[in-house]
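Record passed on underneath.
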Amino acid sequence: MRDIPERDHARQGSRSILHAQESGQLGVGLGQLRVNATLPNGDTYTDRVLDACCGTGGFLIDALADMWRKVNGNQALSDSDKEELRDIIANDRIVGVDVGRDPNLARIARLNMYLHGDGGSQIFHADALDKEVEDEATDSPEVRAERAQLRTLFDSDDGVFDVVLTNPPFAKPYERKKTADQRILNNYTMALERPDTKKFRSSLLFFERYHDLLRPGGRLVSVIDDGILSGRDYRWFRDVLRQKYLIRAVISLPGDAFQRSRARVKTSFLVLEKREHPGEDQPAVFMYGCRYVGNDDPSRERTLPNDRIIQENARAEIREVIEEFTRFQAGEGDVRYVVPPDRVTERLDVKHCLMTTGHMSATWEEHGVRVLPLEEIVTPKDFPAEDVIDAQNSDEPVTYLIVRYDGRATAGEEIEPSNTQHSRLYRVRTDDIVISNIAASYGSIAVVPPELDGHVIGSEYTVLQAQAGFDPAVVWSVLRSDEVRADMLLVATGANRTRIRWDGIKDVLVPYPEADAVQRLAAQLNEADAAERRAAAAREQAANELQDALLLNQDYSRYILDAFKPPR
């Protein structure tokens, strides 16, 4: 009797973005793999699982472990029955395909599956997006035989797989100008219906391919770029998904997930079910926003004490997601995670469909706090002509204003505007409130202090001015609160690189204190700023005295630093 071996989930060399070991477990859990399940007619059935871009086999290893665990935990089976069922799962119920050549990922996946108890006989080296699975002129007899086996396996009008677990490569394009790619695209409805589109992302094509290979009612669990779930350019693709599948669940993953791959892509797990017939109504959708999954696999080599806590949080979160999704499937879902079908007719990202702004406004009002839309507190600055610099026609040196994550403004480098890519630069003035359009959710919001009056910014910032009766320092403190930053993030555009815009944030509801509290808070904040300036001046004076005493400020050293400094 074989036991489930210890699993090493390292996926070094995978060209997709899924690397964290817990994430594979989450995907498998969402797939709800059936093992020896009893069908309505009394027969038993075990799901057949596919990953057609399997990389080094991560999802397949997790699927094997999950299915074997269910076999071993089935007390109704004898030892010999368990052994037989494990062999069926290993040799017939798990299929992988990958086109990767350098290195040959299918070969690595076979080895990984073998090390985890599977013979690897169902792992194929081929381009699964090629619906014809054509042989190539340079193929060896062994490869031709392998592809013939895959063609036979895939040859079914009704699909041959019950579950797909996959993480397709996001960036690889199929281009019409390439003869081989054009042949493949000719077999895709989405390509034929869009003859003017010059190239298609492979990750999109896989959703049509998997639809061919799934049985009616089959389940597809895929990692997907949030830009596809939310972006205007992919509205047509979301319509294709809704036409071919029922949307069952979307699980948002943290923006810093999968750091080891060095891919800065915001992703989600998308759970789909192949429609039994076109007239099926879209039901409610399970949605969940993860905080920890994927963050447990940092890109750095050394381990920190906090890593264990993050890993424990990730595992607990995975358990909660799977348990809540299971309850939802049984009709007992927590309303906090249930999205009605009319909310998924346009976008499919969790941030837009599940989350809402202003959830604290009623509570603030119950506590007697004044609540106002942001546009009643601040207004976008209308820069006077003398503060707008025609950058490409100006050589007058200016200094950048830097807005840090901690909410402080500092001086950046001195530049000549004509040497930058900016068309215009803008001089900010004391008490202007400057917000980084792309980093507002991280806290990059600052009030311009007197010593930085006249520094410049580009178009990547929004500049606001407090309206009469509102103090800039108090407004700054309110805007940098978790509640307001969260609402600004919800109305920001973009998925992988979010941006706030005035038209989006002007209606955000914010609390503001009464006059006596404003006066007290403003005084405290202004005194803190003054103390920081005094501390900075004291540090600079001490450093200057030290350099003078030890002769550390010689012209020769400054010459070396100017003449030989490396490029930035």
About this structure: The CA atoms of residues 133 and 151 lie 6 Å apart. The chain is about 35% helix and 20% strand.
